[in-house]
Design a protein that fits this description.
The protein is α/β, with parallel strands linked by helices. It is built from 14 helices and 14 strands. The protein is flat, with a radius of gyration of 23 Å.
């Protein structure tokens, strides 16, 4: 699973990425700070079964902090996008190609309205942030349309003669974008196409790509720089994007650095923070921390962790499952208790989990055991959030 961090230049994308992953990235107040994509890992939170079961877990692929699993998710921070990027403007084609494998997108928007459409800085309130949501969405949809159109006339003629299904034709063109045939079929139910593929014009294809983008690469708007945003700007963004979260990426990054330096107690997603006893801070530091605390109280935190978790658990509808080898002790081969926490799409089956652990387990799957109920379940058992599952396979 990969989440793309997108947006126009100079809105705080790299700051958001750095705050979420604590990976070193270049952050500067000018367009195209990022040229090569930055990859990193951020954690999303899920309740660990250890407390419910009364056991002490020994995590392997994720941390457990006071009964909360911190599960890694891959983030990709790409170059900023400017209008007409799909036609090659700015770093457009490179930016869009970097997003091919993304499952969801976090569109970092300058909610303060202090950067123009090209990413040049200005005064708060001088730009409508809703325009940034609409233009970025359109750029991705036009990019998808051009991928479909590349060499399409020949394919369309052949498909017309052979009577090929539209979902098969379109999936062939879009498979490199991590888009499934099932997602294409779902889009076709909303935007039916003419039976004759040679009649699929630009407008029809753009309408279809809009639906495919919505389904295959859902987008959440991180309304960044919320601490300096005019109040009315939030409503403007919310009117054009279904899922929105006010964020303060600079605050999140500063708090994580302060926590690492031992000045404060702060965990990602907390609504506030506290000063460490006995630590001396300067007047300037105190003023900055007071400013951050007051804004966190206003928004219920910095919003960065909330944004990540809305993307993973909300838009992508992932659940957490725990594969084990011993369903009585909840351990793996090495005796580690609840060692691995996996994120899988809701609706996944026991066999899907077996393949996720190892392809051989999927190929040789016999049955599974629900460690909570100790009941045997079949290959088509639909996994539930928090399930602990033992896979039984042929050796």
């Amino acid at each position: 699973m990969q989440i793309g961090i997108v947006g126009k230049p100079n809105v705080g994308k790299s700051t958001f990425f750095g705050a979420a992953t604590m990976a070193p990235v270049e952050i500067a107040n000018y367009p195209f700070t990022t040229i090569e994509p930055n990859k990193g890992v951020a954690d999303v939170r899920s309740p660990c079964p250890c407390r419910e079961l009364g056991v002490t877990c020994t995590p392997h692929n994720s941390l457990c902090l006071n009964g909360t699993r911190m599960i890694p998710a891959e983030l990709l921070d790409v170059a900023g996008l400017v209008p007409d990027a799909w036609q090659g403007k700015g770093l457009g084609n490179k930016f869009l190609d970097d997003l091919r494998q993304a499952d969801a997108l976090i569109n970092v928007v300058d909610a303060s309205g202090s950067t123009d459409s090209e990413g040049n800085p200005g005064d708060p309130g001088t730009h409508d942030p809703a325009e940034d949501v609409l233009f970025l969405r359109r750029e991705i949809e036009c990019w998808m349309r051009e991928i479909i159109k590349n060499g399409f006339s020949k394919i369309a003629r052949q498909a017309k003669m052979q009577g090929s299904k539209p979902e098969a034709i379109l999936h062939e063109r879009l498979a490199g974008l991590n888009i499934t045939e099932a997602q294409v079929k779902e889009a076709l139910r909303a935007v039916p196409l003419p039976d004759d593929p040679t009649a699929w014009d630009d407008d029809i294809l753009l309408d279809l790509c809009s639906e495919i983008r919505r389904i295959s690469k859902p987008m959440i708007a991180a309304m960044n720089k919320a601490d300096i945003a005019p109040a009315g700007n939030f409503g403007k963004v919310e009117a054009v994007n279904e899922v929105c979260v006010p964020t303060m990426a600079e605050t999140e990054l500063a708090l994580k650095k302060a926590a690492a330096a031992g000045l404060i107690d702060y965990s990602p997603g907390d609504p506030s923070f506290s000063l460490k006893e006995g630590k001396k801070i300067s007047d300037a530091q105190k003023k900055a921390l007071d400013y951050m605390r007051s804004n966190m109280e206003k928004f219920g935190g910095t919003g960065v962790q909330k944004c990540l978790e809305k993307a993973v658990f909300g838009m992508l509808d992932m659940i957490t499952v725990y594969p084990v080898e011993d369903e009585t002790k909840f351990t793996d081969h090495f005796g580690r208790v609840l060692p691995d926490a996996f994120l899988v799409p809701r609706g996944s089956t026991a066999r899907d989990l077996a393949y996720r652990v190892h392809s051989d387990l999927g190929d040789k799957f016999i049955r599974a055991v629900n460690a909570r109920t100790k009941r045997t379940v079949g290959a088509d058992y639909e996994l539930q959030d928090g399930d602990i599952i033992r896979i039984v396979a042929n050796k």
